[in-house]
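Input/output pair, single chain:
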Amino acid sequence: MLIRSSLAVFRYEFKKSFSLGPTILWICVIAFPTVLQLLIDQAGNGIPTEFSGVLLVGTIPGAVCLLTILSSMAPYLNAELEGNTWPYIAVRPQGRTSMMLGKYLVSVTRSIIAGFLAIALVFPSTSLNELNRDIPPPMTVRPITDTSSKSTTWSEVTNADVGTEKVIKIEKTKPYPLWLSLVILVILSSFCYSSLLCLLGTIMHKRPMILAIIYVLLVEGVISLLPAVVNASTINFYLRSIFLRMMGWELTDLPNALSFINDPNMFSQFSTMGDLLSLAVLCLIFLFAANTLLRNREYHVGETL
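Output:
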């Protein structure tokens, strides 16, 4: 019953979300990373190549997905109250929960679609297509001439002439390609931030966008960057830690331009599976709290103040 009702809400709201005005704004948001990178390419001496992955993380999961979620999930309850449709939802069995879950799925779906389209657009259209490789690049050395040593690390190097450069296989987890890391971050951020903004939209349903923007800027933008224990309660903390491992970065391997974040407290000390479990727990807490408030609070239609 609940699943069927939630899917019915999802189908209706998903079709409704593609009206002319919201679709135009949605397309503009999707094109933002590509336009920004094209402007950087036109400038010639743009940002260093080491910043390419960080820039895309900030503009696609951090801007495209988050703006899409802000416009679709934050005002989910306010739209029903101002539209005078709340009484019809509240009196139906499981109506409140199915409405919340249906709109949550719409927000997640639109955010994932927007992120995937932005990734598919930015790489072929800009110079980033040439940088879509493993980061950091593999180390190169010159092979030794003495082949008598049998049990050395150089034995992994293939036979070649003296003076040629060969790639050494570094014994650590192979980094993910940049596009795959972005795809994973888009999916994770869509689920996590949709659940967070669902809770914020339930708590402050009269001015949901104001609270959501303030919270995202203050907590996810500022507090998550503090080298303190409090940043472990933010979504951004776990997302950037997962991205760091997927790209094969170590804190000591970061470029000099990023040395200001060379602090262990800036990143999670858990494994990737531990970070995923932490994000799942946060999502469940947000959704459970939002559903509890939605089912037990009294709301009045037409509330705008």
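The two ends are 35 Å apart (CA to CA). The chain is about 60% helix and 0% strand.
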